[in-house]
Amino acid sequence: MSATIEIGRDGTGEPVLVDMEELLATRLLVQGNSGSGKSHLLRRLLEESAALVQQVVIDPEGDFASLADEFGHVVIEAGDYDEREIGRIGSRIRQHRASVVLNLESLELEAQMGCAATFLNALFDAPRDHWYPALVVVDEAQMFAPAAAGDVADAARRVSLAAMTNLMCRGRKRGLAGIIATQRLAKLAKNVAAEASNFLMGRTFLDIDMARAADLLGMERRQAESIRDLARGHFLGLGPAISRRPVAVKIGPVRTSTRGGTHSLLPMPEVEAANVRTMLFAELEAEAPPLRAEPRPRVVPADELIRTISEPVAALASAPDAPPQPDARESEAIIRAVLADMLADDDVMAQPTAAQYQDFSVRCRMRRMTRAPLDLAAFRRRFALAQAGVEDPEDAQWAPLLAIAARLPEDMLAPFMLIGRAAMDGLPCPDDDAIGRAYGTSSTGRVRRLLDYMEKQGVIVVRTDFGGRRSVVVPDLGVMAGLSGEG
């Protein structure tokens, strides 16, 4: 399935696309001095991919909390929770595939590093069944992965650096795709920056940063000074998810903004100097009026926040302006069509179940379903049945076969139903390749061991003739899948 987004336009006005599937595998590094448009670029990337992939934003300045208003991200105010609660929330995020913003702005630097490390470690340590694809965006990454010791305690720096290193070096196998943004490459730990294969380089002025950026982009040193001349919101991009050659891109517009807005010049007030002096120094010794206490936002208890994370999509679907969810008949038709499309894709069988479910959810949303019609367990079962050619699991003809399959482990449902369906239809027994695809393996040895296990459980009887051709009987049904070409 194609999953590309447009982040902007090149010098000729042609769209510059980012392949999200490739980005998940190869990660992204963004560099630019303050005011170069880094946050705008990250916001564009997040907005355009919000419907395609789960997003987790580590936000030290509270710039991305506005994503909640437009795209339903759950904002986690880090200062309201302790270390244990942050760890629990991180685990639930992976389980429920919620897009969140971890807002660290209320914490001091050392506390930000400790909180981010706890949160990232919880994402990283999630059970294998929860390894769904997710973008993990870390703004101001030089704070969490500093190249050298600074003003914070060495213990805090080591913990934070280790979490960032895990994200960038080992996160891919767990579905975590790091997107890190920094003001200066020289301040970012090299072993963290080196793991990114995609780069978007904005305006920078220091020679050491320009030289490193030019090296990453494959530019000659004499071309490095062109990075100094980039305008705000303009970047040079390179990488397998962006372009095989350096490409200049002007980042497109965004729908959300920072809560504080942008700073611009305002006309000075027209007040005479004498009046200004009077306003500044009048009645300094008089008792100041009591300050009006601003109401503090309600602290959301951790358990309540976790419930919100568990049901973010359902909450969006119930919003007044949300499109109506298709009825049961339309939903079933969409499920069948999506499963058929997925099975037509040769690459989908090599993916883990979590990635397959992510693919299924995205395809459903592309067909205007506000939420995935199946949870993970139901999807795993329907996908296994679809592999065996069973479109409607409620059809009474499959009930006896499904009852027998209940005696086997869940991961054997697809190969057993494939064999059982062939037996019921009087077709040849599926060969090793077909059974292996259904079981998710290319190993002939694993296929043989699978059949041996099924036979020991009494659900099938395998016979091989002198020519090496296999037949399989389902004894409880008294049917047989005929001779195959191999045994």
Account of the protein in words:
The chain has 487 residues and is α/β, with parallel strands linked by helices. The chain folds into 3 domains: 262 residues, 3-Layer(aba) Sandwich (Rossmann fold), CATH 3.40.50.300; 65 residues; 86 residues, Arc Repressor Mutant, subunit A. It is built from 19 helices and 14 strands. Strands 2-1-11-10-9-3-8-7-4-6-5 form an 11-stranded mixed β-sheet. Helix 13 crosses helix 14 and helix 13 crosses helix 15. The radius of gyration is 28 Å and the shape is elongated. It comes from Sphingomonas lacunae. Pfam families: DUF87. Keywords: ATP-binding, Nucleotide-binding. GO terms for molecular function: ATP binding. This is ATP-binding protein.
Helical percent range? 40-55%
Assembly state? single chain
What is the residue-mean pLDDT, rounded to a whole number? 82
CATH T-level fold name of the largest domain: Rossmann fold
- Which structural class do you get from the secondary structure elements? alpha/beta
Q: What is the strand content? A: 5-15%
Q: Give the end-to-end Cα distance, rounded to a whole number of Å.
A: 35 Å
How many helices does DSSP assign? Answer: 19
Query: Which outline best applies?
Result: elongated
Widest β-sheet, arrangement of strands: 2-1-11-10-9-3-8-7-4-6-5
Main beta-sheet annotation: 11 strands, mixed
Q: At CATH's second level, what is the architecture of the largest domain?
A: 3-Layer(aba) Sandwich
